[in-house]
Amino acid sequence: MSTASPLVPPTYIVGHKNPDADSVCSAIGYAAYKQARGLSGFIPARCGNSNARIDAILARFNQPLPLLLTDVTPRVRDLMVTNVVTVPQHATCAEALELIDEHDVRVLPVITPERRVVGTVSIFQLGGFFVPKVRALREMRKVHTSLQHIVRALRARVVHLPAADTEEELFVRVGAMDLKSFGQAAQSDGILPSQSIIIVGDRRDIQLRSIEMKVRLLVITGNLPIEDEIVRRAEEAGIALIVSPYDTATSAWVIRSATTLDRLIDRKFAFLSPDQRISDLRKKLATSNVPAYLVLDDDGRLQGILTKTDMLKPVRTRLVLVDHNEMTQAVSGADEVAITEILDHHRLGSLSTPQPILFINDPVGSTCTIVADLFRRDGLAPAADIAGILMSGIISDTLNLQSPTSTEKDATLLHWLSTLAGVNARELATLIFSSGSVILNSSPEKVIRTDFKIYEEDAVRFAVSQVEELGFGNFWQKSKDLLNALDSLCTKEGLCFACLLVTDINTQNSLLLFKGDPELTKRITYPSVEDGEIFDLPGIVSRKKQLIPYLTTLLRELTNDGVMPTSRRPGNAEPRLGSSG
Ligand SMILES: [Mn+2]
Predict the structure, then answer these.
(1) Could you tell me the distance, in angstroms and rounded to a whole number, from the CA of residue 55 to the centre of ligand 1?
(2) Distance between Cα 544 and ligand 1 center (Å)
(3) Range of the domain at 31
(4) DSSP string for residues in 480-542
(5) Ligand 1 centre and the CA of 526: distance in Å?
(6) Is residue 162 included in any domain, yes or no?
(7) Separation of 324 CA from ligand 1 center, angstroms?
(8) Of 396, 413, 433, which residue is a domain's last?
(9) How much distance in Å is there from the Cα of 369 to the middle of ligand 1?
């Protein structure tokens, strides 16, 4: 999902869920600021859908919609090792051992030519095969392979090699004893001559005896010369004859290593999907004895390998949070990755970080004001389009400096940006606020989810949405539907209450739609204009600075009077965990 060079881990600059204009504009602006400072790898992102207002701003200033980042939860694919050393299905033990030695690994996935995993072989399995078992001598001499593999393993000179590619079960015997004992041993161990490999030096008697017995393969060791008569007789009898460069003991060992892997493959291997969450695996992997998990795609093809050591690697995804600092509002999985910076103008939530980070929290009217201030402080001027983007964030959040959240600094920087962008603030405000009535153009469910934030106050969860309109005309047509939508939201999210602040940009007044805890509803001191569910809030336009403090005060009063706020039981949604931040 990264578009940055793999050498520089990407850092996503991302605003809150249900992004508003300030959230998207400050992400774009701060990425431009980083670039102006000569820093690379910063990517503006958003963790939710755009809306008509954001689209209008981006189109006006020629900016693409930032990357959609819905979930940054670390997954197996983020930590797995992808350059895995593998061994082909039909390789020999010698080849597997060589790979293990060369790459210093403990386990080799055994794969088909299509990279489908057949199983694994480990150094332990191979070791077990080669370590002498005194109670199973016959096993110790067994080789399951073809003569061609033996020739390759020994780097042998071929004299005669019939049926070289046939896979067969063979037994190694060293012809080092007296001729008489050799004959007796051959009869007593019950191994057929056609299954026997005889390894011998320049012992003419044993060589001849082996040919008479019609053994499968005769191996002459130490590059010793062979008499012409032996060669002729072997060929006549159809007996394979090769010359090994090694001594007898080494040849015997190397022949055994020519055994194909087939019988040694552990076909019950542990595997994971690349999409599995690391957090779900930590416990499982901590208590398991499996040294490494293969990572397979849906077709069983090998994608990578994950060891316990890999789980300890730091996650590469890094985030800069703009326009929010509460985990309930951040992109999913934000609490499992590194947050390197926060730029915000909201109340402080309950976020904590393991490392010290750059945290700028300035109670100005918009996050874009903070970004513009950073440019100006460093003597940098944003490009005209970026200046326009930053203006849009300020205008949108401060209702063109009319909101009580607006400060001197917002006004100063808006003016500065206006000069750089060559754009009149009043004209831009008209474009932004006339970019379509959300209430008229969206379903009630969408209206309350468009600019929607969940808050947590002493473990009480509630939601406050806001929508800005030119006049209340459109609103009154949809007020009943919006109340119903709030009611379902309250149940679905298991909230204490859900409310919607409808703000008229023209008159700078708002209406509040409120659904939830009846005890709390009763305590609302603003005049009710309908059914005790819609209230008139003259002069209230800021959710952050005016409404949230009012609501938290109401909640405190309720608990101080010994009444516990009641939350709905989540309906069709799964029970949610509280904030982990
Ligand atoms: Mn903001």
Answers:
(1) 17
(2) 9
(3) 11-74+316-433
(4) HHHHHHHHHHHHHTT-SEEEEEEEETTTTEEEEEEEE-HHHHHT--SPEEETTTEEEETT---
(5) 26
(6) yes
(7) 8
(8) 433
(9) 9
Residues whose CB falls within 8 Å of the CB of residue 79, separated by 6 or more in sequence, listed in order:
278, 306, 310, 311, 313, 315
Q: 458 and 416, same structural domain?
A: no
Q: Cα–Cα distance between 67 and 44 in angstroms, integer?
A: 7
Which residue bears the tokens 């919006």?
A: 482
294 in a structural domain: no
208 CA to centre of ligand 1 in angstroms? 95
Residue 178 shares a structural domain with residue 214 = yes
Q: Do residues 57 and 169 both lie within one domain? A: no
- Which domain CATH number covers 558? 3.10.310.20
pLDDT digits (tens, 9 = 90+) for 210-219: 999 899 999 9
pLDDT of residue 264: 86
Domain boundary among the residues 388, 403, 433 is at: 433
pLDDT of residue 576: 39
* Predicted pLDDT of residue 506: 74
**Same domain? 62 vs 148:** no
Query: What integer pLDDT is reported at residue 3 of this predicted model?
Result: 42
**If you measure from the C-alpha of residue 479 to the centroid of ligand 1, how many angstroms do you get, rounded to a whole number?**
26
Residue 23 Cα to ligand 1 middle (Å):
6
Alpha carbon of 252 to ligand 1 centroid (Å):
77
The CA 15 to ligand 1 mean position distance, Å, reads 9
**372 in the same domain as 459:** no
> Does residue 390 form part of some domain?
yes
**Is residue 83 included in any domain, yes or no?**
no
Q: Which residue has the tokens 């400072």?
A: 37
Residue numbers of the chain with a pLDDT score lower than 50: 1-6, 572-581
Number of domains in the chain: 3
Pull the structure tokens for residue 559.
Answer: 């608990």
Q: What is the DSSP letter of 577?
A: P
List CB-based neighbours of ion ligand 1 within 5 Å: 22, 323, 366-367, 397
